[in-house]
Amino acid sequence: MEGIVIKSTGSWFTVMAKDGTFAECKLKGNFRMKGIKTTNPVAVGDKVDFLPDKDENAGLITKIFPRNNHIIRKATNLSKLSHIIAANIDQALLVASLYEPRTSVGFIDRFLVTAEAYHIPAILIFNKIDIYDEERFAELDKITGIYRAAGYPCYAVSARTGENVETLKAIIKNKTNLFSGISGVGKSALVNAIEPGLSLRTGIISDYHKKGKHTTTFPEMHPLSFGGFIIDTPGIREFGLVDFRKEEIAERFPEMRHFMHDCQFNNCSHIHEPRCAVKDAVERGEIPASRYESYLRIYKDDYLDMEEWEWE
């Protein structure tokens, strides 16, 4: 039978068949012997062939179909391996917040760079606007202005009050949507607001650290009653980039891509070379300084500034 992997716990996979039935499956052993350098050769969103076992209510995945795309990060505890978050995605939505907890600009930019690399349209969703005051709304306008100018749609919502949730539902209808974000930004609460019947667990924010606690344990794909799917993912501590060559990174910043071909040198790093069109654009304010600083951090592979670049 043919189906889609809708949940993965690492060793077991829930597969939804075309007729809407579900089967718990394991992976045929030889898939692990093909040199795949990831912690999970099968990911949520993968289209597969499987053999159901009606007697034991368990099946066996026998074939993985080629992916249209996937999004990936460094494995949490195995730095030499990567982890596929999800596959066959129509769009990736990063749920962020400016407050309780704050999503760092560095995290947002790494997510966007990765989505660009795998040709997945990305959308920024800023949650928790019900607790924003005038000063925070002004900051939100500044930040969304930067990303909209780069071509990324930005939306402000409140999972608690439902503000702009209907707008968000129209954006994700009939598409396979990856929802990601750091722990505590209200990702699961927002999914519940979009599809109340799912009743995903939500967590609380630590009063001391103002950081979230994990509530989603494994990536899981949820069918939407109005059409499409949401792939809910665990809050992740960092978004380490995988298999990037340094000379490719500038291509993943739309603002830099607009200017980089006017540089004096074809192999310009946009850091120290003379007559660099990118650096000139930064000085003129045509490329925001925050985005250029993110580029420098990623180029130098700097993960050491924990307070700015990594949240628990």
Tally of separate helices: 9
Largest sheet descriptor:
6 strands, mixed
The helicity comes to: 25-40%
In CATH terms, what is the architecture of the largest domain? Answer: 3-Layer(aba) Sandwich
CATH topology of the largest domain: Rossmann fold
Just give the CATH class of the largest domain.
Alpha Beta
* Range of strand content: 15-25%
Alpha-carbon distance between the two ends: 40 Å
User: Would you report the number of β strands?
Assistant: 13
What is the CATH superfamily label of the largest domain?
P-loop containing nucleotide triphosphate hydrolases
Mean model confidence by pLDDT: 83
Cα radius of gyration in angstroms? 20 Å
| Structural class by SSE content | alpha/beta
Number of separate structural domains: 3
Low-confidence stretches: 201-216, 303-312
Order of helices and strands: EEEEEEEEHEHEHEHEEHHHHH
Which term fits the overall shape?
Answer: globular
Strands of the widest sheet, in order across it, are 10-9-8-11-13-12
